[in-house]
Amino acid sequence: MAMHDAFITLTKATGDLPDGTQVWKGDSYDARREHIVGAIGREPSPNMILIKEGRFSLAKRVEMVDLLRVMKRIKNMYGIDCFQITIDEKKHEVLLLFDWYDYKEGKSHVINRSMQIAMSVLIIRQLKLPKPTGELWDGYFIKSEYQDEPEMFQEMLSAIQHAEIGRKNYRRTRDLIHYVQNKIEGRVK
């Protein structure tokens, strides 16, 4: 998956993250791997990914406390636990180590392209990073915003009721807002 398709790249991790400008370690790579193998009850197959490294570029300075807050949301939403973070201000990037084992299902997490983009949008929005350009991103940003502010469509409908946009444009705008809301809620394709 290209960087522009997902913002965050995810690859199989092979060890602890390197040191950087700011470092947070909740666990070592070896200790976390040992914990996961203990949960599995045997040595996993070679193709089973237990720990993944995430990486994304920074356009501005972020604080560790903000990254920890975003990683907590990712854990709550996707069940993926980040246990190491390195901010490398010289290279303008963030490195993350994720526990990729789904303890409820007893297998590695499966994150498809759509979920990876949604995770990228969550990171971008929460850290107030510049929004990538391209049509691919628009729907994901609207959906992410709706998850945080479910009243947003009602607010837009209220706003257009008092706007001087003409009867025809009012109807079109109202229908468009309803359509987008229904699409995000999965009621239409």
Backbone shape = elongated
Residue runs with pLDDT of under 50 for 5 or more positions: none
Distance between the termini: 25 Å
Strand order of the largest sheet: 1-3-5-4-2
- Which percent bin holds the helix content? 40-55%
Alpha-beta content class: alpha+beta
Main sheet, how many strands, which sense, barrel?
Answer: 5 strands, antiparallel
Secondary-structure element order, N to C: HEEHEHEEEEHHHH
Mean pLDDT reading: 90
Total DSSP E strands: 7
Number of helices: 7
> What is the CA-atom radius of gyration, in angstroms?
20 Å
- What is the strand content? 15-25%
Describe the structure.
This protein is an alpha+beta fold. The protein has 7 helices and 7 strands. The chain has helices at residues 3-6, 29-40, 64-78, 113-127, 135-148, 152-161, 167-184; strands at residues 9-12, 22-25, 51-57, 81-88, 93-99, 101-102, 107-108. The strands form 2 sheets. It has a 5-stranded antiparallel beta sheet with strand order 1-3-5-4-2. Strand 4 and strand 5 form a beta hairpin. The longest helix is centred in the last third of the chain and has 18 residues, at 167-184. The relative contact order is 0.14.
Short characterization:
The protein is 47% helix and 18% strand. The protein is an alpha+beta fold and 189 residues long. Helix 4 (113-127) crosses helix 5 (135-148) and helix 6 runs antiparallel to helix 7.
Which characteristics define this entry?
189 residues, alpha+beta, five-stranded antiparallel β-sheet, 7 strands, 18% strand
